Write a sequence for this structure.
């Protein structure tokens, strides 16, 4: 299967910009898959680029990175620790031959190094699992690229998704007026399957997808979680 980087935007509506990286047999299949994952509308213009996603421990190197008027060696990698993942970019000073100090990004739960056309390196993922749509987007990503992580990293990521899934359900009850008795039927099986992944019994992330439409339908219209009390 081929790997593709997807960017989708609506002219004049930057808040509707979406993006992901995925696997598909061809561009047509990739576009259809992206429409499902990113919940795209007919307004979205989709840009698709073939790419190659590397293992999280990969350290990508180029000897042709712009460095003032010169060209330098540059390294692109991902550091993963208890705080999550962050990108690491580091160059070699062509005048001294010494490594410059690395430039690190902020932490995200999941980031992977990626190789685009013309030997251009970048990063993908940037998953946060914050909200139903983001959880499902992350689950699709993990299913496509689970071979890019160690077994322990997969279990750790599953534990994080479990925590964010529980937060998501609790937030809907508190801030959207949904009753837990109505909502729990859409969380029980996904959470059970996530526990299996966290325990090393499975790697089937797609079995953990949330039923977005039914979950959204349970939100109470115009619900006001913060009541204003007036005193006479």
């Amino acid at each position: 299967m081929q790997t593709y980087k997807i960017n989708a935007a609506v002219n004049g509506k930057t808040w509707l910009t979406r993006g992901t990286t995925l696997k598909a047999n061809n561009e047509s299949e990739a576009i259809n898959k992206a429409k499902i994952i990113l919940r795209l509308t007919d307004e979205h213009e989709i840009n698709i680029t073939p790419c190659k996603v590397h293992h999280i421990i990969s350290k990508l190197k180029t000897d042709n990175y712009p460095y003032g008027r010169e060209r330098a060696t540059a390294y692109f990698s991902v550091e993963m620790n208890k705080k999550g993942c962050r990108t690491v970019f580091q160059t070699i000073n062509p005048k001294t031959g010494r490594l410059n100090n690395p430039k690190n990004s902020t932490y995200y739960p999941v980031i992977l190094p990626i190789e685009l056309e013309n030997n251009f390196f970048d990063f993908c993922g940037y998953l946060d699992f914050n909200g139903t749509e983001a959880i499902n987007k992350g689950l699709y990503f993990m299913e496509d690229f689970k071979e890019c992580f160690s077994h322990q990293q997969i279990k750790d990521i599953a534990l994080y998704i479990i925590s964010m899934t529980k937060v998501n359900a609790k937030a809907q009850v508190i801030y959207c007026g949904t009753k837990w008795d109505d909502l729990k039927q859409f969380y029980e099986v996904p959470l059970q399957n996530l526990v299996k992944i966290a325990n090393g019994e499975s790697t089937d992330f797609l079995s953990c997808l949330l039923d977005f439409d039914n979950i959204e339908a349970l939100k109470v219209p115009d619900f006001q979680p913060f009541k204003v009390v007036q005193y006479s």
